Amino acid sequence: MEHTLRQVFRSGKFVAGFSIFVAVLLIVFLYPLIVPHPPLEIISQGTFFPPGIYVDVYDSIGSTTHYTLNLDDAVAKRIASKLKEEDRLAMKEWLVAAGLSESEIDAADTQSLMDQWVNNYDPKTNIPGMTNARRNYYIRLNTSLDGILSTEGAIIAARNPDTGVLEEKRIIPQSEYVNVSEVANVRVLPLGTDNFGRDVLTELVKATTVSLQIGFVAGSIATLIGLALGLLAGYVGGLIDDAIMFFTNLFTVIPSFVLLILISFSIGQERRGAVTIAVVIGFTSWVWTARAVRSQVISLRNRDHVNLSKLSGHSIFHIILADILPYIASYVVMALILQISAGILTEAGLAILGLGPKTTLVPTLGLMMNWAMIYQAQILGKWWAYFPVIITIALIAFSLNLMNTGLDQVFNPTLRD
Amino acid sequence: MPAEKDPCLSGRGVTKVFGFGRTRTVAVDHVDFDFHEGEVISIVGESGSGKTTLAKVLLGLINPTEGEVYFQGKERDIGSYRKKKEYWKQIQAIFQDPYCSYNIFRKIDTVLLDCIHMRGGRGLPRAKKVELMAEACSFVNLKFDELTNKYPFELSGGQMQRLMIARIFLLKPKILLADEPTSMIDACSRATILDMLMQLRDEIGMTVVFITHDIGLAYYVSDVVYIMENGRFVESGSADNVILHPKETYTQRLINDVPKIYEEWDLSTV
Fold first, then answer.
1. Domains by residue range for chain B, with CATH
2. Beta strands A186-189 and A52-55, pairing class
3. pTM metric for this prediction
4. Tens digit of pLDDT for each residue in A337-394?
5. Between B88, B95, B104, which is nearest A313 by CB?
6. Of A305, A313, A316, which is closest to B102 when you measure between CB atoms?
7. Is residue A264 part of a domain?
8. A303 contacts in B (CB within 8 Å)?
9. Which of A253, A283, A335, B15 is deepest in the core (most CB within 10 A)?
């Protein structure tokens, strides 16, 4: 036993898969302890806020200490961030129409673009083919550029509670800074928010937990059913074998995913919890385990050690448990790992079709994909709503399959390289 | 053949067929036999002649396709698990390959404990069980103290086969089917194991059915010899008659195939 374990942990593939899986488990276990936000709390007004650090504007203005930093590139950066992409292109278009050569203008270089604009723009210049509306747009753009280039600070005013008159509180110059750690309300959203305005990372961690649970329950049920039927059919043989194999073949012929869709649909949205889905997946995916276990048992049941056990007067259950099961234990562990992986993937597939667990109670990896798909995150380019989910599913399935391959190499000497 | 006593194990038209259609193989083909109590019977044949299949049929591990097996004068009835257990208290076996005969996940003392339990010793105090096991081990020149908490695969082939004899010592069956017990073992251990088997037979007076491909060995140990070819008994009789005066060419060939030390070995018939 100890020897086998040592051998298993010497297999590079198994160790790699195991490390990834344990890392996922650790994150899933530790993250809620560190960041105790409720996973399904709607925090944002609006959908798909991009990833980043969100700082409360009111609190940062009201922050006690303001620091003045004189940074050389601060002005350039500010102007660059205020100049929108479409305005840059429009400016380039005007300059080209006004006679500058296209190669001279670099829309990405704010400094030179602004210089060229200030030197060349004249609202009176008549450019052939330009509509009045377009001309007015350029005038507005020019005015707003004056605002962008201004070095005045912002004025903060508040209404006097007695008189109701706006009173100037203070002027914030452009070179004034606050330290983020001194601002009372800062929320880090490493993966932004989703379509309902929920923190994607917190939700993802919870979804991974639930999906792993679904995978484990489904995998265990499938392996247990497959193991029990396979052992019984393989060892007892005869009529029982025929009956079980008839039943198994029936399930093999029906595509299990179609069966799954039909069952999930007929259960109904209201009663479809995560556990229900797991049980349904488990009850439809035991077929291959049963077949494989049966063939393993058939090759074992005529071995001499089984005969000796019979001659020693052991009952059929003792023989199955003590003389057959230990010999196929490694195989069963491998089947379980694959079934867990398949369970997670099946849940994701089912949920993406809208047949997953009930949507309001728990997130699962499949449900997150489903939400992202319904709200067109992939079309709107909101990658943070679905890409981390895909990566998580891929990582879990990859690590489990890697573990399985590693175990296969240890237990099956012909595969060792 | 001493015919005055009822045979303790006999068969009429015992047949075992494997597969069907093109893969149909007749392993045992309508064999008749009478094994009498206290005799040492040898079944000799080359590999593939159906010896082991016959042994399994006799043990009740597989059912014959046709024919009847009579046990102690009555038709054998091993339909239920309880009856099978009763049958296996009377008839036991030693298998060919000691390396495959043990469950590698169970410790050695559990193998011997099973035998004590089979003989109805489940309620005995632990000390008494240990005493019985130690006695059985010392009979086969094994030290029980060294065996406890060991797994079968930690022993050598000869030790494993001796442990198998210790099992028989504890079980004291009426009939022992020894299916090539020495074929996987080196020549020195072979003599020891044969000696132990014969000594055990004298001690508990059991009938031994010895299955072997080695006709010299059969002559050395047995009273009655059955020669088996392609699932049939082609010749049978007392060991002296069959081996010293063989009638069938198959028997002559088997005898000729035994390597001889002082004569030139005729390889033409091999």
1. 9-256 (3.40.50.300)
2. antiparallel
3. 0.82
4. 999 999 999 999 999 988 888 877 889 999 999 999 999 998 999 999 999 999 999 9
5. B88
6. A305
7. yes
8. 100
9. A335
Question: How many domains does one find in chain A?
Answer: 3
Q: Are A403 and A18 in contact (CB under 8 A)?
A: yes
CA of A335, closest CA in chain B: separation in Å?
21
The letter for the amino acid at B187 is A
Q: Distance between CA A83 and CA A95 in Å, rounded?
A: 16
**Residue A289: predicted pLDDT:** 93
Q: Can you tell me the distance from the alpha carbon of A225 to that of B206, in angstroms, rounded to the nearest whole number? A: 46
Interface test with B, best of A307, A311, A314, A330 (most B CBs within 10 A): A311
E strand map for chain B: 9-18, 25-35, 40-44, 66-71, 74-75, 91-94, 175-179, 207-212, 224-229, 232-238
How far apart (Å, rounded) are the C-alpha atoms in residues A303 and B100? Answer: 7
Q: Is residue A214 part of a domain?
A: yes
Mean pLDDT of A209-232: 95
> A31 and A125: one domain?
no
The nearest alpha carbon in chain A to B94 belongs to A308
Domain identity same for A35 and A129: no
Cβ pair A322:B105 closer than 8 A: yes
Nearest chain B CA: its distance from A260 CA (Å)? 39
pLDDT under 70: residue ranges of chain B: 1-5, 263-270
Residues 6+ apart with CB under 8 A from B171: B89, B92, B115, B118, B119
Does A112 share its domain with A145? yes
Copy the structure tokens of residue A378: 């992939």
CA pair distance B40, B208, nearest whole angstrom: 5
Residue count (chain A)? 417
Q: Are residues A228 and A171 in the same domain?
A: no
The verdict on A225 and A369 lying in the same domain is yes
Residue B4: its pLDDT value, please?
A: 52
Whether residue A104 lies inside any domain: the answer is yes
Kindly give the pairing relationship between strand A154-159 and strand A166-172.
Answer: antiparallel
Domain span including residue A119: 74-149
Structure tokens given for A54: 């969100």
Q: Which of A149, A176, A209 is the last residue of a domain?
A: A149
- Is residue A192 one of the residues assigned to a domain? no
Using an 8 Å Cβ cutoff, are B226 and B43 in contact?
A: yes
A307 touches chain B (CB under 8 A): yes
pLDDT at A125: 79
Contacts of B85 in chain A (CB under 8 A): 313
Per-chain mean pLDDT for chain A: 89
